[in-house]
Write a structure and sequence with these properties.
The complex is a heterodimer of chains A (208) and B (643). With 208 residues, chain A is mostly helical. The longest helix of chain A is centred in the C-terminal third of the chain and has 34 residues. The N terminus of chain A is likely disordered. Chain B is mainly α. Chain B has a two-stranded antiparallel ribbon with strand order 2-3. Chain B is globular and about 80 Å long. The chains are: A mainly alpha (208), B mainly alpha (643). Chains A and B meet through β1, α1, α4 and α5 of A and α2, α7, α8, α9 and β1 of B.
Chain lengths: 208, 643
């Protein structure tokens, strides 16, 4: 630490012994992602509110002539996403220990789960919803709910892929592990958001 | 008062020499590339913030010019200076410009400039993101103003109510441009908000626990949280509107089960907090001005903080009072009447605390304080008409009349622009190193104050007399002529006052006397460094043990041990601000600018085809890869042991 100033050590608060790499809520980036999550979560909640608001305008929900959304692909996606927490939790843990190979392995598996989730989502758009976005307001709002959440899945999977590329090509820096651990945190939130989205789009029409 | 850090280090010549060395090293580590490239790549919160302030005032001038045209048009009955179509574009552009391109950005820009200095750190938490937000904001403003010049300016009001703004009644591109303006400004506002929250919570200097944070920083923190939870509503709403218009969704189409009132709920769930997003930073200005020029700490600091937080929460529970005329259930409307009246309580607490501070202090009546005092008077008037409008029966009578126009101009000009002008005069010495003219400052205040009241007070009476908003003319002999003539004459006086104000700013830049570090004898840390501050803000980060560090005579240690050869900052604990770790910030980069260009291409293309979203996403992927790709900074390499 030759560049550190030796000025006035007696009357100074010397912070040179503090660490430079930290994880979790201690890291500013974690808070930045929390802000992002708050924004995205609020936006998704707003569409959820619109879903319930629009329900008032219909006698039947889904509207007459539109079948109930089919559960198969969406439930499979729910299972896939819940299971994907395991490899990402491993990424989280191994990143904190700076275990390069294990983080690479965990991220790879996480990306595969992300791709599986996208494929299952595509199936839902292709048929399980039983209507188009321009069929009626019900169609508009369920397509938007699934689409918004899909955008998060895609974004996060691309982030994981980018990070994987950085870890494989290098040069690897210690802060890359902080990024890996924060990617895992972001992924947990995306999985968490799928649960209410799934309930609203697939189960609520059976109750409302 | 001079900078405590430097004063305490100065006596020993050896220490002074070391400080000079450290400053030279910091200068190398923190300076940005010069010239045009530096402009595009800057990662310095101060240069980005100043650019944002100047840009915002540019849009303010444009928005004011539109207001002047409206006052000219209304100066006599059955005037034909502008026709109804152009008038629709003008009032829509006036409102949208003032809200989205001036008020919110300028407040956030002051936050981005001042918060790091006030909390004693070197930069904001995400300096590159900051630069990205600026370019997105500029792109949005340029896009919509270019469209306006080409006669495709938005024309459905700054609130763009459906069904008027829907595909059936607004064909063409005008409303699409409004929707995309929202996309641009939301991104910029949200970026700045996250920036301010994280900077405030993680980067305060040691000792600055939350209960010692300057009130302006509190105000910006509350504002930033409001932005985070209010803006998604309009983001969602404008996206739904764009989709209704572009890809035939039916969110707002009643024929297919959509709902026009859904738009109003979503819009005002954002739109009402928006008022507080503009107003709360202004209260932060006023607290700073009142405290500095009363020569005492603010009266009732805990009450002030709680009032800010209460306003932040209550601001989200009033939106329906904009919808009283829509025939919602009476019980619901009564709830929102009560909530709307309740927000007068925290506002009242703040007003009384300011008065108590002034009464018990030793008041130095300088020009910035005049603007703060003007604010108190005008805001009370605006607040009183606000309470009137919160009452359902009265609201129904004056809904959509000039009474409402008078009310919100008292709240927004009186409540936000006056404190802002005071803040500009107050911090101009810090930003430029030069003192504004006191005499011009006083004259500009007097003329602006008189002009403002001449313009907007008659509008109360015009509204009660039945003059509707957003109508391009009125008939002769219906009792509206006198009020409109007075208002238009007042607008000329108001314009003169504002010209005097900006003449003062221009004079300051050319001729102002050197300001020194702390010309006003203020209490907060931004005055503990040079004017203008160096790129790294402080040679040594300060520590504090009270809420008015520069008024304390106690000696305080400064922070040492941060690296001076790279952009290293100290991260502290969110509540108590105890030192936690050292964190390296990113430096200047072209990628944030390129990412903003990519996003702009995507958003503008989306005006014409939904594929714009895909194009923007793909371009953004490329630029973001460039942004985050590591440069292999050796001091962070994995092989090296942690020092």
């Amino acid at each position: 630490m030759s560049a550190t100033s030796p000025v006035a050590r007696a009357r100074a608060l010397d912070v040179s012994a503090l660490p430079t790499i930290v994880y979790g809520p201690r890291a500013p980036l974690w808070w930045g992602v929390l802000g992002l999550v708050a924004i995205e979560g609020t936006a998704l909640a707003m569409v959820g509110v619109a879903y319930l608001y629009l329900r008032q305008n219909f006698v039947a929900w889904p509207p007459e002539g539109t079948p109930l959304p089919r559960l198969g692909a969406a439930t499979a996606e729910l299972i896939v996403l819940l299971a994907s927490v395991l490899p990402m939790a491993a990424v989280d843990r191994f990143a904190r220990a700076e275990r390069h190979r294990l983080v690479v392995l965990g991220l790879t598996i996480g990306i595969v789960f992300g791709l599986a989730s996208m494929a299952l989502r595509a199936l839902q758009f292709a048929g399980a919803l039983g209507c188009r976005w321009d069929s009626h307001a019900y169609g508009s709002v369920v397509w938007t709910l699934l689409g918004m959440h899909a955008a998060h899945v895609i974004t996060s999977t691309i982030e994981n892929a980018l990070l994987l590329a950085v870890l494989l090509i290098g040069p690897v820096e210690r802060k890359d592990f902080v990024d890996a651990h924060i990617n895992a945190f972001y992924w947990y939130v995306i999985v968490g958001l799928w649960v209410p989205t799934y309930v609203l789009v697939y189960l609520a029409p059976r109750w409302l | 008062m001079s900078a405590p850090a430097r004063r305490r280090l100065a006596p020993d010549p050896a220490e002074a020499a070391r400080e000079a060395l450290d400053r030279a090293a910091l200068e190398r580590a923190w300076s940005n590339p010069a010239g045009f490239v530096g402009w595009l790549t800057s990662a310095n919160h101060k240069s980005v913030a100043i650019r944002m302030i100047v840009t915002a005032f540019g849009f303010f001038a444009l928005g004011s010019a539109l207001a002047a045209v409206m006052r000219l048009q209304l100066a006599r009955p059955e005037n034909h200076l502008v026709g109804p179509d152009l008038y629709n574009q003008i009032f829509t552009m006036h409102g949208s410009t003032m809200m989205f391109l001036f008020a919110v950005p300028v407040m956030e820009a002051f936050g981005i400039y001042l918060v790091p200095l006030m909390i004693g750190t070197r930069n904001v938490a995400f300096p590159r993101m900051n630069n990205f937000g600026y370019w997105i904001y500029l792109a949005g403003g340029l896009m919509v103003w270019t469209a306006f010049v080409l006669n495709i300016g938005p024309d459905a009001g700054w609130f763009a109510y459906v069904p008027l703004s829907g595909p059936a009644y607004s064909p063409g591109k005008r409303v699409d441009l409004w929707a995309q303006l929202i996309t641009f400004t939301e991104i910029a506002a949200l970026v700045a908000a996250v920036e301010i929250v994280v900077t405030t919570l993680k980067m305060r200097c040691p000792g600055m626990s939350l209960n010692r944070m300057p009130l302006f920083v509190w105000a910006m923190l509350v504002t930033a949280f409001m932005v985070i939870f209010a803006m998604p509503a309009i983001m969602v709403a404008s996206t739904m509107l764009a989709m209704d218009r572009m890809v035939d969704t039916h969110f707002f189409n009643p024929a297919e089960g959509g709902d026009a009132l859904l738009w109003q709920h979503l819009f005002w769930f954002f739109g009402h907090p928006e008022v507080y997003i503009i107003f709360i930073p202004a209260t932060g200005f006023v607290s700073t001005l009142v405290s500095t020029f009363s020569r005492r700490r603010i009266f009732g600091y805990p009450a002030m903080v709680l009032a800010l937080i209460a306003t932040g929460f209550l601001g989200f529970s009033l939106w329906v009072h904009h919808m009283f005329a829509t025939g919602l259930p009476l019980l619901g409307e009564s709830f929102f009447t009560a909530a709307s009246m309740m927000i007068a309580i925290p506002s009242g607490i703040q007003v009384f605390c300011w008065l108590a501070t002034l009464r018990s202090g030793r008041v130095v009546l300088r020009a910035p304080l005049l603007f703060a005092l003007g604010f108190i008077a005008l805001f009370v008037l605006g607040g009183l008409t606000g309470i009137m409008l919160a009452a359902l029966p009265l609201d129904l009578q004056v809904h959509d009349t000039y009474f409402v126009v008078a009310h919100f101009h008292y709240v927004l000009i009186g409540g936000a622009l006056f404190p802002l002008l005071g803040a500009v005069l107050f911090w101009l010495p810090k930003l430029t190193g030069r003192m504004p003219s006191e005499r011009l400052g006083r004259w500009s205040f007097a003329v602006t104050f008189i002009g403002f009241n001449l313009t907007f007070f008659p509008m109360h009476l015009l509204g009660l007399g039945g003059m509707p908003r957003r109508v391009y003319t009125y008939g002769p002999g219906v009792g509206l002529t006198t009020g409109n003539v007075v208002a238009s004459a007042g607008a000329a006086v108001l314009a003169l006052g504002l010209l005097l104000f900006f003449a003062n700013v221009a004079w300051t830049l050319r001729r102002g006397a050197p300001a020194g570090d702390d010309p006003w004898g203020a209490e907060t840390l931004e005055w503990a460094t040079t004017s203008p501050p160096p790129a790294y803000n402080f040679a040594y980060l300060p520590t504090v043990d009270g809420s008015a560090p520069l008024w304390s005579t106690r000696e305080r240690p400064v922070v040492t041990g941060l690296r001076t050869d790279v952009r290293e900052v100290l991260i502290t604990d969110g509540i108590d601000a105890t030192p936690d770790h050292r964190h390296r910030l990113d430096g200047a980069s072209i990628w944030p600018f390129l990412t903003a260009v990519a996003a702009t291409i995507g958003i503008v293309t989306a005006l014409f085809t939904p594929w714009g979203v895909t194009i923007g996403a793909l371009l953004g992927l490329i630029t973001l890869t460039g942004w985050f790709w590591p440069r292999g900074a050796p001091e962070h390499a994995i092989a090296e042991e942690q020092p």
